[in-house]
Amino acid sequence: MEAEPVLVPLNSQKDITHDWLQQVMRNGLDPSLKLVSWTAKPLEKGAGYASDMSIVRASYCTQANADVVNSSLCVKLLPENEGAANFVRNGNLGMREVEFYKYAASEEFKTFCQKSGSPNLIPCVYWAGIDNDRFTVVLEDLTLKDFKSLVPPEGISLKQAKATLSAVATVHAAGFTAISKHGTHQLDIPWDAHFLQKEVEMGLKRLVKMYADTPMAGTLKTYFSQIQNLVYVDLTYPFMKTLIHGDLWTGNVLFSNDGSDVRIIDWQFAHFGNPVCDIQILLFLSCNSSVYEDNLTEVLECYWSSFEQALLKNEVTLEPSFTFEDLLETVDHLWLFGFMFFAAAVPDLLDYNKMSVARAQSVISFLNKRGVFTNSVPLANEGDDDTASVVFTLNFEGFLREVDEKEAAQRQQHARFMLREGQ
Question: DSSP letter at 18?
Fold first, then answer.
């Protein structure tokens, strides 16, 4: 009997072979699968900044079904571009995505989502592996099922925003349950946001240029010397520790034709952190300004209801329970995180026509109206000009708190849960 090839991560699309692909498909579909034919086409550069992607069209048959079946797969690899590859290495992004998809393929995660009523939040995973810094992820290509990415420059609608947050709330609930139950988790990979500093700096420069010759330009300039603090601002107000996407904009979401059903992809920023980060990233990077200006409470209520329902349907209760008011308070205290991540992303969003200038300005206007720039005041040292050597004080309406990782752990422990077995 011929030995099956050992699956290893690939260096590039050119390394895809008939035997390798057949074994990947057997791993994800049927051990008896026989690959009949296949073609691979790389997506244009820039389509996946943190990975090189190819679409593989394949035809196969199985022992149970001799008829030839056509399928489509998405293959993700470490970028060949050295700058993008270093970005992936510095953030350990390949490891994060591989470990997430292994978790998504686990019976624990699939059972949790099934009981929650959302069994298909993540595309089918055929195989995921990493070797040193090479990684390969093979997923179901959902475009054949009429799912598509929606990144309109003016932003997505309220309906699409609620569908996305409802989906990620279930993942958050699964992650919270897993880490509370097991204490440790394969995805609890140390997260250090220092690798975002260069992107934040570039984004601030772009925003300062956008607001040239206005008072806002001067306000934005005061943040340059405090970028190293900005990238860690989410630690200043712990809420709960759970599995988050970390880059939840609609370039990483696929929508059904009617916009009511979503699949979340590209989990390279996945880590255990504050779920409010995912909420704010989606609001500022992808939503029409009316979503957060006029419908913020409705959006957050939708998210919280989905989170609670996912726990309830899995017979998990929180004691004492986190409340919706806790969520509102945390969102309000962490707007500066949303600003930081928005700044990191805004150059690419503008350059690739994923965001209009008007929508970018709406984000700044919203944050300014909320007092974010006045309540997180950079204090200039005596004798310095107003753009250099500033001391950054996180002063959220008079609330000043030291960053203390122990506090987050203690808060998580305080919210211990009960699994109501057999009830």
Answer: H
